[in-house]
Amino acid sequence: MPTYHVEMFEGRTVEQKRRLAEEITRVSVEVLGGSPEAVEVLITDVKRENWATGGKLWCDQK
Amino acid sequence: MPTYHVEMFEGRTVEQKRRLAEEITRVSVEVLGGSPEAVEVLITDVKRENWATGGKLWCDQK
Amino acid sequence: MPTYHVEMFEGRTVEQKRRLAEEITRVSVEVLGGSPEAVEVLITDVKRENWATGGKLWCDQK
Amino acid sequence: MPTYHVEMFEGRTVEQKRRLAEEITRVSVEVLGGSPEAVEVLITDVKRENWATGGKLWCDQK
Amino acid sequence: MPTYHVEMFEGRTVEQKRRLAEEITRVSVEVLGGSPEAVEVLITDVKRENWATGGKLWCDQK
Amino acid sequence: MPTYHVEMFEGRTVEQKRRLAEEITRVSVEVLGGSPEAVEVLITDVKRENWATGGKLWCDQK
């Protein structure tokens, strides 16, 4: 702990995920204290057909 | 906000997801107020081997 | 199944939650089929200090 | 209810998922009471590139 | 990993939570392997007004 | 999107939550692109009796 669940559109590179995990862990320790080893980051790649904002699926948005 | 996470068996059509997102957003605004643009709907397609009820996986149920 | 997790600002009345659960269940069955008894709705009341959009906590927003 | 969400590395067999669902349902009823039919278990298979501990993605760890 | 999120009605004792965490961890290691130290169990106490099945809030059910 | 759900022990100050939301939003935009306004951060304050690691509740750990 703490645990971070990240939901984002699918299609990001492993390198982006690598950097995101590093940065979230760094700022987590910086702000909340604790050790980096206790920080978990879980990423969910979400298809655009599975995410709607304002009632519209993102696969239908330009 | 509000945010709706929907877990359902995989296999639904994009059209069903489209209608579900529209309807959830509509009833959300109707009951809770706020604007449609603030409503997020995230859908998770769950495999039947990943969902158990009463201790039985749904891929094992008739 | 399906299961709906709803995250919304704390402060809604039980009556609003009652109506929201009814409406989500109704539109779920209407769009996805299945029986109402299989539909679960779980609500999370979120404090404004625990929700940020655009980097700002909602307890800090007018 | 209760509902159990399990996040684990992808790659487990259906047989492991079958046993896990059975065992979680059994211990749930044993400890919390209630009927097995009310217990839901949902499994998420997580790619190693989507899980980081200590700031490192598991796909980068030996 | 794995991580178990448990949603259950509020009102369970700390002793029940203690036993549930022990048992889930035990069966997790038994079925999936891995070490107990890697297993996380997070419990959410859900008010009956925040959980609906079949469109009815559990605070309204006998 | 993206959406960040943070689970952490209860007891953090609003100021820590404020800084955490700012920092997560900043690194999210920096690594993934997109606009800050699209980034949502939701925090869950978890009681130590509701979080177990290695089968032990954190309220039982020194």
From TrEMBL, chains A, B, C, D, E, F:
The keyword Isomerase applies. GO terms for molecular function: isomerase activity. Keywords: Isomerase. It comes from the Bacteria. It comes from Oryzisolibacter propanilivorax. This is Tautomerase. Residues 5-57 form the 4-oxalocrotonate tautomerase-like domain. The active site is at P2. The keyword Aminoacyl-tRNA synthetase does not apply. Pfam families: Tautomerase. SUPFAM superfamilies: Tautomerase/MIF. Belongs to the 4-oxalocrotonate tautomerase family. The lineage of its organism: Bacteria, Pseudomonadati, Pseudomonadota, Betaproteobacteria, Burkholderiales. InterPro entries: 4-OT, 4-OT-like_dom, Tautomerase/MIF_sf. PANTHER family: 2-HYDROXYMUCONATE TAUTOMERASE, TAUTOMERASE-RELATED. Its EC number is 5.3.2.-. It is an enzyme of class 5 (isomerase).
